[in-house]
Structures are given as structure tokens and as C-alpha cells.
Specification:
Distance between the termini: 54 Å
Largest sheet: 7 strands, mixed
Helix content: 25-40%
CATH class of the largest domain: Alpha Beta
Strand content: 15-25%
CATH topology of the largest domain: Nucleotidyltransferase, domain 5
Enzyme class: transferase
CATH superfamily of the largest domain: ATPase, nucleotide binding domain
Structural class: alpha+beta
Pfam families: FGGY_C, FGGY_N
Strand order of the largest sheet: 17-18-16-15-19-20-21
Keywords: ATP-binding, Disulfide bond, Kinase, Nucleotide-binding, Rhamnose metabolism, Transferase
Number of domains: 2
EC number: 2.7.1.5
Number of helices: 16
Protein name: Rhamnulokinase
Oligomer: single chain
CATH architecture of the largest domain: 2-Layer Sandwich
């Protein structure tokens, strides 16, 4: 029986390695590193080799921390991105970022090859340009698949690098728009319509199953298990949601949704942009994939480039002292998909509509924060209309819980209480799934606990 569980949590702007002591209920972050997509040979790609190096370094630190005792390791990442392998098991080319413009260039062709509503009916996933399916279609059109024998989604690729075991984990597969609703099997009709070779994938494995021992010297006491594979699946797993609770996993993306026993494939779900991704326990996360703090992160980079205040926590605190500007932006506008000078972009868009231009970083942050809160409220209404359910409480997790203004404004616009926390929701859910994988411990009987803060809606 392992008492330590290590979480490798890889987000699209940073990665970290944490140790959960199940006996003591404590969580310790032992390694953190920043990373970002970068331009290389006219593509936006991830520095995947450095990412793997940092993961191994973090696991070494974790192993020292636990005194080289036996432990499990769970790996989660953002969705949709992938690596291709050749016959020898070596990676082919770069790991291209989902924000690369190749999917925009080939979008019309993809729609002709497989109509969007049909794609949704086959997978339960909105066929957005960022999906793995649309990325692979673009790759086939522009580069081809010469020499490729396997396709691994990102958490499975990291697991492969650590263990030598290839796999296809259910939760991350469900984000790809390549699997049947619920991700029990692949949607082969999609492969054929988009000219994606079938031989690139293998059998889908359920979450809470064992991948294998790590083969790196000095890390042989560590065993990788599937503990959710997708960051939002991990985060939701730890919430123990009630039927009247919705959730927001708020980071670069705002993943707004609820848990359902089965996929929802209605015309209304498609038209309202609702998608079906899989939970760690096999249930379905009905959700909206919304642009989230990415806009604010990009604005802060713009502020830094012009030598202005750029610390997001400082700016959020200053923004909370400002009155509502009475001005909103559409955070779902495709213009916020690829990197740009968002601060200037937001200012110019406001000018176009006759509004005064925000004259300080905190004013722009206030506009973005309030706009995100209204987007959350719209998503809540959509979710209630699609499911026929009324949600009385909203659980908010992820980095966004540090922004108290966003939490309060979300409560105000949604007009239901927002329960914020844990900030480390992804790590908590991953550790919980690891415990369940090796011990069959019921979810509600573990010693793992966390604190939350409740924001009540203002009614004035």
C-alpha cells in the first residue's frame, strides 16, 4: 500500500510536481516550471523535450522528499495536443500547439470533409478548430503522416516517455473529437472522413488503471497510473458534486459545466455549444469550453512589454477597487484565439463601440474580469436550458479562485453562491483517483480534505 501519491500537473503555461501524503492529508509542491508555446519553422510548437526534462527533474525531487518509498504517479495535461511516433518508438517532428494557425487555414476543407453537426453526433464533442481531429486533418493536408505508427495524446506521451508503455487514456481521448460519445471506443467514421490513419491508435483504457513502473534510473520505485489524464477531469473528480451544483475550472480556459450520467447529443446541445467529455469515474462532463484567464495573461504580457504593472494578482486587487466600467467585451470572440497584443486590441474594440478607452492596466483587467463573469452567467443559462436542471450553487476551482473579484462578479452575474476552492483542485482529484486505483477506497471515505471560500451574490 502506497501512502504517497505524486501529481504531475501540466498546464499550458506552467507545470508542477506535487506530493500528496494520504496518511497526513498534506500536499507539498516540490517543483514548478514555466513553459510556453514558441514559434519554430513557421509553426507554434511546445518545447516538449524541456517539458519532459522538467517532469523527470520534478519526480527526482519528489522521490527525495518521500525518501524513495513506493509511490504512484498521476499525469494530467491540457487537452487535444498530441505526439506522433515512428516504428522505433521515437517522436516524429514537433508537438504542435492547438493555437497554431494550421487549423484555421484548413477549416473550410474540414467542414466539407465532415459536416460539423454530423461530427458532433458521432463524438459528442463540438468540432472546434483546436480539437485533435481538426489538428490531424490539418496535418494530413499540409504535412502528411509519413512514417507515423502511433498517435499519443499529451499525458499518454509523457507516460510513455517515463514507462515505455503506449496507451490511450479515456478522459483525454474524450477531448479529441475522435472517440464515440463517452469514449468507450473510437469513432472510426471520423477517422475515415478526415483521412486520419486508423492504425495510429489502440485500445482505449479506463481511468483508475495502472500504466506501469517508471524506467528512469533512480525512479524505479514509482508507478504511473491513470488518474484522470485531463486536468479538468481530475479537478472535477475531487469536488464530489451534488446534482444541483455546476462547476467552473478556471485557468487559461474557463471550463463551465456539470456532471451527467450519459452524453447529451441533442440539436439544442450542439447549437448552444455544449460538449461531452469524460469524468475520471466514467460519467460525462457536459460543459462549455470558454476562453478564460488566457486573455488576462496575454494582456499582462503586453503590459510587461511596455514597462507597466503586469503582476496579475496586483492588477486584480487594484481592479477590485474600481467601479464597474459599464463596458463588456465578447470573450468568446475568435479574435482571442491566437496570441496578440490583447491590451491594445481591447482598447481599440471599445473605441469602435464609442466607449472611452481604459487608460490603465487595472482598468483593462476590470473590463476583462467583468466580461468573463458575464460569459459564465450565459454559460449557466445555456446549461440549465440544455439539461432541464436548475443549479443552485457553482463550484469554482483552479487558478481563478485567487482572483476574488472574478469570484464575486461570477456570483453576482449568475445570481447563485460561488464556492471557490480548492485552488489545487486538479492535484487533489488526481491524488484521490490514485488512491482509488490501488486501494478501491470509496471516494467519500478518504482522509483528503480541503478548504473553500463562499461568495454570495449581491442582489442590488
Amino acid at each position: 500500500m502506497c501512502s504517497f501519491h505524486i501529481v504531475v500537473d501540466l498546464g499550458s503555461s506552467s507545470g508542477r510536481v506535487l506530493v500528496m501524503d494520504a496518511a497526513g492529508g498534506s500536499t507539498d509542491e516540490v517543483h514548478r516550471f514555466a513553459h510556453t508555446a514558441q514559434e519554430k519553422n513557421a509553426q507554434l510548437v511546445w518545447d516538449i523535450d524541456t517539458l519532459i526534462t522538467e517532469v523527470v527533474r520534478g519526480l527526482g525531487k519528489a522521490n527525495e522528499f518521500i525518501g524513495h518509498q513506493p509511490a504512484t504517479v498521476g499525469i494530467d495535461t491540457w487537452g487535444v495536443d498530441y505526439a506522433l511516433l515512428d516504428e522505433a518508438g521515437d517522436r516524429i517532428g514537433e508537438v504542435v500547439c492547438y493555437r497554431d494557425e494550421r487549423t484555421t487555414r484548413t477549416s473550410a476543407q474540414a467542414d466539407q470533409a465532415l459536416e460539423q453537426k454530423k461530427h458532433f453526433s458521432l463524438t459528442g464533442i463540438q468540432p472546434d478548430p483546436i480539437t485533435t481531429a481538426r489538428q490531424l486533418f490539418a496535418q494530413g493536408v499540409e504535412d502528411g503522416f509519413d512514417g507515423a505508427t502511433a498517435l499519443l495524446l499529451l499525458p499518454d506521451y509523457v507516460a510513455y516517455e517515463l514507462t515505455g508503455e503506449k496507451g490511450w487514456s479515456q478522459a483525454i481521448v474524450s477531448t479529441s473529437a475522435l472517440a464515440a460519445p463517452g469514449a468507450g471506443d473510437w469513432a472510426w467514421e471520423v477517422f475515415d472522413a478526415l483521412n486520419i490513419p486508423r492504425h495510429l491508435v489502440g485500445e482505449i483504457s479506463p481511468e483508475r488503471s495502472v500504466v506501469g513502473p517508471i524506467t528512469y534510473e533512480g525512479l524505479n520505485n514509482l508507478t504511473v497510473v491513470r488518474s484522470g489524464s485531463h486536468d479538468t477531469a481530475c479537478a472535477v473528480h475531487g469536488l464530489r458534486l451534488e446534482s444541483t451544483e455546476a462547476f467552473i475550472s478556471c485557468g487559461s480556459w474557463s471550463l463551465f459545466g456539470c456532471v451527467n450520467s450519459t452524453p447529451v447529443l441533442s440539436d439544442e446541445a450542439f447549437s448552444r455549444g455544449v460538449t461531452n467529455e469524460v469524468c475520471t469515474d466514467g460519467k460525462v462532463r457536459l460543459l462549455h469550453n470558454l476562453t478564460g484567464l488566457w486573455i488576462m495573461q496575454q494582456c499582462c504580457r503586453n503590459f510587461a512589454d511596455s514597462q507597466r504593472e503586469s503582476d496579475i494578482a496586483t492588477l486584480a486587487a487594484k481592479a477590485a477597487t474600481l467601479d464597474s466600467p459599464g463596458v463588456l467585451i465578447d470573450t468568446t470572440d475568435p479574435i482571442f484565439t491566437t496570441p496578440s497584443d490583447y491590451a491594445s486590441l481591447i482598447a481599440s474594440k471599445l473605441e469602435e463601440h464609442g466607449y472611452p478607452t481604459p487608460d490603465s492596466p487595472e482598468a483593462i483587467v476590470r473590463v476583462v474580469t467583468e466580461s468573463l463573469a458575464t460569459t459564465h452567467a450565459h454559460a449557466l443559462k445555456n446549461l440549465e436550458e440544455v439539461t432541464g436542471r436548475t443549479f443552485t450553487r457553482l463550484r469554482m476551482i483552479g487558478g481563478g479562485v485567487r482572483n476574488t473579484l472574478l469570484c464575486q462578479l461570477t456570483a453576482d452575474y449568475c445570481q447563485i453562491p460561488v464556492v471557490a476552492g480548492p485552488q489545487e483542485g486538479t492535484a487533489f482529484g488526481s491524488a484521490l483517483a490514485q488512491i482509488e486505483t490501488i486501494s478501491d477506497t470509496p471516494q467519500n471515505s478518504t482522509a483528503l480534505e480541503y478548504s473553500t471560500v463562499t461568495y454570495l451574490p449581491n442582489t442590488t
